[in-house]
Amino acid sequence: MMKRRHGIAVATALAAILALAAATTAPAPSSVQAASEQSTPSVENGKQLYDRYCAACHYPATTAKKIGPGLKAIYSRGKFEDGTPVNDPTLRRWIEKGGKNMPGFEKSLTPQQIADVIAYLKTL
Ligand code: HEC
Predict the structure, then answer these.
(1) Which of 29, 33, 62, 106 can bridge 70 by disulfide, Cβ–Cβ 3.0-4.6 Å?
(2) Whole-prediction pTM
(3) Where are the domains of the chain?
(4) Which CATH superfamily is 3-26+41-121 part of?
């Protein structure tokens, strides 16, 4: 099947993300830094995190496929591609664990940052 091609695409995307992360570590806006205490999820912070960690693979303004499916209206659509309901816990789990071709963000994003990304996803 298309496994191999997909793997290369994902590896390329990951390399791009790592390069981007390396290039942007120094002047990262302080609002992106992990908050140690949980606070109200911030859509604004979630958008910055999305641009940094998700946009390489997911268009925010369409459902067209980039490397992963476009995430426009992911929340109001109500279901993931596999039929699972979309809600805060299932989205959080998805972002933490990743998928077949999506990396998990458990180690790179704090629970607060994931809550921020989810708040942003709700606006798409
Ligand atoms: C390296 C590419 C890549 C990155 C980075 C990535 N994803 Fe994904 N994502 C995918 C792929 C590919 C899929 C399709 C399922 C699979 O094969 O894993 C997917 C699926 C999803 C889905 C399920 C969509 C559906 O309708 O089933 C959600 C939600 C999602 N990603 C959110 C995110 C968020 C939020 C981030 C950033 C924190 C992110 N992804 C970062 C590649 C990526």
Answers:
(1) 62
(2) 0.77
(3) 3-26+41-121
(4) Cupredoxins -  blue copper proteins (2.60.40.420)
